[in-house]
Amino acid sequence: MKNLIAILFVGLISFGSFAQEKVAKIEFKTDVIDYGTIEKGSNGVRVFEFTNTGDAPLVISNVKSTCGCTVPKKPKDPIMPGETGEIEVKYDTKRVNPIRKTITVFSNAETPTVALKIKGLVVDSDKTSVLEKKNKSMLEQ
Question: Which pLDDT belongs to residue 40?
Answer without folding.
Answer: 95
